Amino acid sequence: MRASLFLSALSVSSVMAAPLLPEINAHSAPADSLKKISEYFNLLAVKIQQSKFESAVPTCDLSKVVMPQAPSPLPPPSFGLSLRHVALGRGTQNYTCDPSTPTAAPVANGAVASLFNASCIVSAYPDIGAMLSTVSLDFNLSDLASIASSVASALPFPPSFLKQTLAPTSGMAVSGAHYFTNASTPFFNMDASQWKIGEAPCAKNNSTPAPEAAPRGQQGEKAVAWLKLITRPGATGGLQEVYRVETAGGSAPETCEGMPEHFEVQYAAQYWFYGN
Ligand SMILES: *[C@@H]1O[C@H](CO)[C@@H](O)[C@H](O)[C@H]1NC(C)=O
Ligand SMILES: *[C@@H]1O[C@H](CO)[C@@H](O)[C@H](O)[C@H]1NC(C)=O
Ligand SMILES: *[C@@H]1O[C@H](CO)[C@@H](O)[C@H](O)[C@H]1NC(C)=O
Ligand SMILES: *[C@@H]1O[C@H](CO)[C@@H](O)[C@H](O)[C@H]1NC(C)=O
Ligand SMILES: *[C@@H]1O[C@H](CO)[C@@H](O)[C@H](O)[C@H]1NC(C)=O
Predict the structure, then answer these.
(1) Are 136 and 148 in contact (CB under 8 A)?
(2) Candidate of 59, 60, 83, 116 to mutate for ligand 2, largest count of ligand atoms within 8 Å of Cβ
(3) How far apart (Å, rounded) are the C-alpha atoms in residues 205 and 228?
(4) What share of the chain in percent tops pLDDT 70?
(5) Residue 111 Cα, ligand 1 centroid: separation in angstroms?
(6) Secondary structure of 125-136 in the HEC alphabet?
(7) In angstroms, rounded to a whole number, what is the distance separating the alpha carbons of residues 257 and 255?
(8) pTM value?
(9) Where does the UniProt annotation place the signal sequence (predicted)?
(10) pLDDT tens digit string along 196-234?
């Protein structure tokens, strides 16, 4: 029933030529997320339609992109650095709890995320870029993959550039992986992809709360903070500073009451990489 809500929203879009009805396997996603994802795909369809009337392929010019700012802004990138890459991160924030102290707050215990190349999207289509975190968080990765392939077959010949954006995290190309090498070292490995952006062991430099209206997570939890990280010795590719912005979900409950010793909370975020 919820899936049919999504399908009707997709098919009433005036820009969709003779849509096939894709089969969506959308499990437990709340109805609200189906509305959001259909808005997302409708916006993509509009861009595809518009792009047919433009002779030039949109450029992916990172020099003109403006990083989103929280109400209490993080310190800006250091003088002389330029934006090298923007990735959509989709994964989990991990936490631990001591079962003997249920009133204590959970302790952050790293994160694991896949990084998807969002450089072109945020530079050419900032309005789509702004929707990526929330749309990707509402579905688990396996669901997103099936949604992407269904919608891809329903869209009339999207230009290859936009095809890559069909579904956040499954139509988009992987640019790397994010994990922790120890409790205080978030690490970004972005050398395996075709872009060879570099590797960045980092340390936290600054933190600011996500905007009040930031997308909540799968369990209704708040969005994790926005961060500024600085690379530690050993970074490659000239990478120097990394920002986590546009977060969605990922926070722990206030206390450990009823929580297991180790647990994960699904999150999404954008990572902005600056270098020289
Ligand atoms: C995502 O996966 C988790 C764990 O496998 C599950 O508990 C949750 O309900 C799933 N969420 C959605 C939106 O399908
Ligand atoms: C992937 O990332 C690189 C480096 O930021 C960028 O030059 C390229 O345009 C990106 N490609 C897409 C499709 O976003
Ligand atoms: C954190 O989450 C990842 C991804 O599911 C998992 O592989 C890893 O074991 C977790 N780490 C801890 C310490 O629980
Ligand atoms: C974590 O790793 C970083 C980078 O290798 C290192 O500088 C730091 O001392 C380590 N911290 C701990 C507590 O081991
Ligand atoms: C953050 O970076 C600035 C500039 O490099 C530095 O002066 C400051 O001490 C750093 N703060 C922390 C908490 O690391």
Answers:
(1) no
(2) 60
(3) 5
(4) 71
(5) 17
(6) CHHHHCCHHHHH
(7) 5
(8) 0.84
(9) 1-17
(10) 999 999 999 999 999 999 999 988 999 999 999 999 999
